[in-house]
Amino acid sequence: MTVSPFQRILFALYIAIFFIYLLGPLAVMGASAFNTPEYPQVWPFEGFTLDWFGKLFADQDMMYGLKMSLWIGLLVVCISVPIGLAGAIVMTQITPRARSLYYLVVVSPVLTPGIIIGISTVVFWRQFTGQTGTRFLYDGVILTVFGQASFISAYCMLIILARLQRFDRAQEEAALDLGASYPQVFFHILLPFLKPALFSAAVLAFLSSFENYNTTTFSILAEKTLTTVLAGRMRQGTTPAISALAVIIVAVTVLGAIVYEILKRRADAAAVQRQRAAQAAEEEELAGMPSPAPA
Q1: pLDDT band at 260 (very low <50, low <70, confident <90, very high)
Q2: How far apart, in whole angstroms, are the C-alpha atoms of residue 40 and residue 241?
Q3: Which residue windows are transmembrane per the record (predicted)?
Q4: What are the distances in angstroms from CA 258 to CA 22, 190, 254, 270, 278?
Q5: Are 95 and 167 found together in one domain?
Q6: Tens of pLDDT along 201-232?
Q7: Can you give the pLDDT at residue 206?
């Protein structure tokens, strides 16, 4: 199939427009973080400054919201990843007839609007804590963790399930035949195989919790997170300090992706070297074996 020059130009133009649309707002926001005016603007560029980064860290509400978002994100990871792991394992163990119904039930929170999840979380736990005398559970942070984990755990389950479907059950059966217990099989065979999926699920759970607004704005009660603080600031009028925050978040994300890619390539190179060393040792062992005597 030949491609005409006009089609190539059209495709290149489409790619350029796509990346401009995708990265343009980030570039504008990043440039406004280094401009001196008090309102975010890129042009005219009145002067280079780093003062907005200092004002960002001096903002107590912003730093408190950031701290709470990080704390809630870690708690959501600790709850969502084990629940997602358990849900994925159950999915592979139940009968094929029950999988459709089970899948519908566990994925339904993802299809539920975040506003509904936030309101229902507050209503349920208010009645539950009032009837059981556990009022300490009716806290903004705890309710937010429960509300977010109710649908983020489904994301984790889907990621882990995609990896688990490629797992060779013969490894478990061989380990059991050799005398291993079920906990030993789980911790020494299944979990190492699922390590990449567990890491991906943890990262996704943290990022989904960190940027969540719809559920958080109802379940957080009197507490604050970074998203609720930013929403309040946007109603009152934004400053380049928010652009400085965006620059920091983008920089941390890009740096994390680069570090992960470097570590992944090193791990892949080490695995290839181990495979080559094992293959070479096997060839040497076969070469040192005596040849069978002729009949």
Answers
A1: confident
A2: 9
A3: 12-34, 70-90, 102-125, 145-164, 185-207, 241-263
A4: 20, 28, 6, 18, 30
A5: yes
A6: 999 999 999 989 888 888 888 788 888 888 88
A7: 93
- 292's torsion region: left (phi>0), alpha (psi -120 to 50) or beta? beta
Structural tokens at position 55 = 């004002």
Tens digit of pLDDT for each residue in 98-109?
888 888 888 888
Pair 47, 192 in one domain: no
Structural domain includes residue 270:
no
Evaluate whether residue 39 is within a structural domain: yes
Classify residue 19 as left (phi > 0), alpha (psi -120 to 50) or beta.
alpha
pLDDT in tens, 13-59: 999 999 888 888 888 888 888 888 777 777 777 778 888 888 888 88
pTM attached to this predicted model = 0.81
2: region left, alpha or beta (phi > 0 left; psi from -120 to 50 alpha): beta
Q: pLDDT, tens digit, for every residue of 87-129?
A: 999 988 888 888 888 888 888 888 888 889 989 988 888 888 8
Domain extent for 150? 59-240
CATH number where 89 lies: 1.10.3720.10
> Structural domain tally of the chain?
2
**What is the rounded distance in angstroms from the CA atom of residue 121 to the CA atom of residue 225?**
17
In a domain, 279, yes or no: no
Residue 21 to residue 33: CA distance in whole angstroms: 20
Number of residues that this document lists for the chain:
295
Residues 157, 53, single domain; the answer is: no
For residue 242, which of 64, 42, 67, 59 has the smallest C-alpha distance? 59
Helices 240-288 & 5-32 angle (0-180, nearest 10): 120
Q: Are residues 43 and 84 in the same domain?
A: no
Q: What pLDDT is stored for residue 222 in this prediction?
A: 79
- Tokens 């890619």, residue located: 261
